[in-house]
Input
Amino acid sequence: GILLENANHAVISKSLAQNLSVTIGDAIYIAGEEYVVTGIIDYPQAIENIIEADGFTPLPANPAFFATLSKDLTVAAQAGATPPNLGVSSVIIVPFRKALEAGGYVASVALIPKDPKSTSYDEMLKLAKELAYALDITIYVSHNGAAKQLSTFSTIAVGGWEMIVIVLVLGALNITTMVLGNLKERTREIYVFSAVGLSPIGVTVFFIAEVLVYAIVGTLIGYALGYGMTEAMVLTGAFPGGHIFNFASAFTIIGILTIILASLAAVAYPSFVASRIITPSLERRWKLKTKPRGDEWEIPLPMSVPTESEAKGVLAYLYEYYTGAGAVKEGVHIVRDINPPDYENLTLSLRVSLAPFEMGVSQTADIYSVLDRRINRYVFVLHLKRLAGPRNTWQSSNYLFVDDLRKQLLMWGSLPSQEKQKYISKSKTTH
Output
């Protein structure tokens, strides 16, 4: 129905013609411009069933799925799904020049040989390859009802392995030997680690961390030196002026990884030596030394101090903990009530609820210090009394509570002298 390229002609679907109550020869307005209806499509399937070489119909894409085309909000397509084209009932066909003037775009370009009979498939395929390389877009070739897609993609070619494998192997062996020699000379250190209670796994982790630091720092220094030498050779004329340092070379990355892996492989030997020298303790977890008697439980704590004043400072330190950060420990306990320390009797009393809290387990906890005349030091003891809750739950839940208290007492030993003196002074002031 469209005879002229720049005429105000329009072809519409039968359903649209019925909705607008127009027929051929009538005028319709599109974006404020008058168009004459020169054709009506009675059978939309006649166009919608036409499939082009790219697998789509000749109708335009639905702009609702493309932010660059839509003037309204776009619709997110399902992952992996291809947005559909518009149907005939949603399209008005106008001359292409009029469409461009109205803000249209060229979605695809079809090249048809002037003489299809004399143009072979190989010639069309050759032209399609040249266009794909030159334009970097997807090209489709259709011949005898079959379509072929041509597109460009990036590839990485790796060559010269035969020249670098030997260098990598020799370098890896050299580094492994050097690291092994260094670690072999430090066997005495393993005895020291054993004396301070480090397990074989701890020794292995220690050596791995040390070797990783050396390997990573060494590779970074080597990388920087390689870059500097390359620049120096360019300046001295050893390399051509246009030479560029390849920062992301596969050989560079493989070389760095080889050094790191060779260094880690050398750690296997000291790990084996550590497992033979160090006898790991069978007790991996701190255990309570006593059992409850009825509803009461007295537990000696792994803590002792030389003077009474320091014992008072420890009680002041624990009082600050249980009124602050230790008042609520998720999954352990909640302090319901606590009294200031009784420095006269060296006692700190509190009432706590134990997790799981829905079991309703509560108890009183008295932490007191007494002088052990055998060692002439003040030791600490925890006295517990069950107030409510199942006895089995009370006994099992107390491990976390006592373990938390034990760790706080151990932290006292790591405090600086000035910090300890602050708590000792606080106990004297309060007293």
In short: Residues 1-108 form one domain.
